[in-house]
Amino acid sequence: MPALPFTADDIDRLQETLAEVVAGGATPGGVIVCGTTDGQQQVLVAGAVASELGELAPTEHTIYDLASLTKVVATWPLIGQALDAELVDLDAPVRDVLPAMTGETPSGQATLRQLLAHTSGLRASTRLDHYRGASAALADLLCREPLADAPGRHRYINRGYILLGLALAHVNGASLDDLASQLWRRIGMISTVYGPVARGHHVAPTEQRIPGAPRIWGSVHDENAALLGGVAGHAGVFSTPRDLATYATWLLDAYTHGDSLGEWLRASLVPHAVIEPGLDRGLSWILAADGHVAYHHGFTGTSLYLAPDAGRYLVICTNAVYYGAARTRIAPLRTLALKTISAWSLEALDE
């Protein structure tokens, strides 16, 4: 069944809210892409890439630091690929898919499923700089850490995805960035890479952490990912609104046609833990609208929303950390995006 067309009211509200958060100092600018599996697409733009570039407006080709969207654009699909190749077992301890280690490894007993669903009980605070000068491998150091809580409760934990990235490299015998690059090229995501990327008018800079110092521009914003050379399971990927739309379309097509990736997406939309009333965590994805909408945010100001049964997606790319703490002021845009795609999902179910 063809997707329902976007209404002018939907597009106007998204455009107005994007313009309002830009005018309110939440972000220098941003891009929204709304699309469907049957080729409908709307690209909305507001503001500028950065004040350093004058009034140059962002486009669907502007490169953004995705931050935690790395989890669902790199790590999650690669885990699904490894699962299909029988390289991993979701319910096996992560230490089983890492280089051999000896001794007690409390955090290493967490399963891949628990790490994906943020229910592992691992310590939430991750400071890889505390491991500077250690003689043991990073996987050993992470696995030796005591648990902060009994597994089962939802708590957003980056170190779990760092372990997943290390595990993917080990079981595939290839680096995480090479694995991801092969996947993205196959999909047609020609501008998506692990950083760094060359700074320029086509790249949205992020934060200036020290007054008078150079702004972070083309290098990963996340400090732990930076310590890993910019390549990690939780952060480090740069992409464009257009590539994220390509990725979303690929996922929705797979969901409709029922191939192995589509089955992985369906399995990932099963709730594993309650985040708050109305929101659950699946495998990587946050679930809303009774599981009919899946989405994820990135700390830098990015978001990706899917409504698989409606064949629709919504992409938000901003560099809201440009203003530091003002990143939280893009919340009205994210709230409207979730409300809009949830309504699209309900419309499709009513058809």
What is the C-alpha radius of gyration, as a whole number of Å? 20 Å
Shape: globular
Give the helix tally: 10
User: How would you state the average pLDDT, rounded?
Assistant: 95
Return the CATH topology of the largest domain.
Beta-lactamase
Domain Beta-lactamase-related: 17-337
InterPro entries: Beta-lactam-related, Beta-lactam/transpept-like, Diverse_Enzym_Activities
GO molecular function, one term: hydrolase activity
Keywords: Hydrolase
Describe the structure concisely for a colleague.
35% of the residues lie in helices and 15% in strands.
Task: Give an overview of the whole structure.
This protein is an alpha+beta fold. The chain has two domains: 8-69 and 198-220 and 238-350, Beta-lactamase; 75-177, no CATH class. The chain starts with 7 loop residues before the first helix and ends with a helix. The strands form two sheets. An eight-stranded antiparallel β-sheet has the order 2-1-11-10-9-8-7-6, with helices on both faces. The protein has a three-stranded antiparallel β-sheet with strand order 3-5-4. The protein has helices at 8-23, 70-84, 112-117, 138-144, 158-172, 176-187, 223-227, 241-257, 260-268, 331-350; strands at residues 29-36, 41-47, 64-65, 193-194, 237-239, 273-276, 279-281, 286-288, 293-298, 302-307, 312-318. The longest helix is centred in the C-terminal third of the chain and has 20 residues, at 331-350. The protein contains ten helices and eleven strands.
